[in-house]
């Protein structure tokens, strides 16, 4: 949004894999080392177990947030939950599927819906968060598979740009 409407923000932990949104969890607390530790031990490991029940370990791609995922509590929780990390360079949203695809698509869908609303329509925070979740969970398998598949091309673009910026679409 171009302005602050004064509404409280929502923090969502999201994860995709196997052609679907595997994790959609509203983080109700202020972000700190304890929050990702709780996520790893709870919603993340649960999502992994239900999607890949025979696996002994799982690998996730995450951002390089030093106050959360890279905190001591976060690192210990990953180790205890047998979760490994596919590391990407710091400040590299071009390689994080949730950043370059999931959030972009969900927000576009939300804004398209809002354009059709009557001017006097008001949505509570709870309704907004529920609609956000519905839109994410409704993403088609083909979109998620294509988004994950785009990582190889994006990695090649990043390599060609010698770690620098590259234009969306790979031009």
Describe the structure.
With 171 residues, the protein is an alpha+beta fold. Helix content is 47%, strand content 13%. The protein has five helices and four strands; from the N terminus they run ββαβαβααα. The protein has helices at residues 34-51, 72-81, 97-115, 125-137, 141-160; strands at residues 11-17, 20-27, 58-61, 83-86. The strands form two sheets. The protein has a two-stranded antiparallel ribbon with strand order 1-2. A hairpin with a 2-residue loop joins strand 1 and strand 2. Helix 1 packs parallel to helix 2, helix 3 (97-115) crosses helix 4 (125-137) and helix 3 (97-115) packs across helix 5 (141-160). The chain is globular and about 50 Å long. It starts with 10 loop residues before the first strand and ends in an 11-residue tail after the last helix. 15% of the residues are buried.
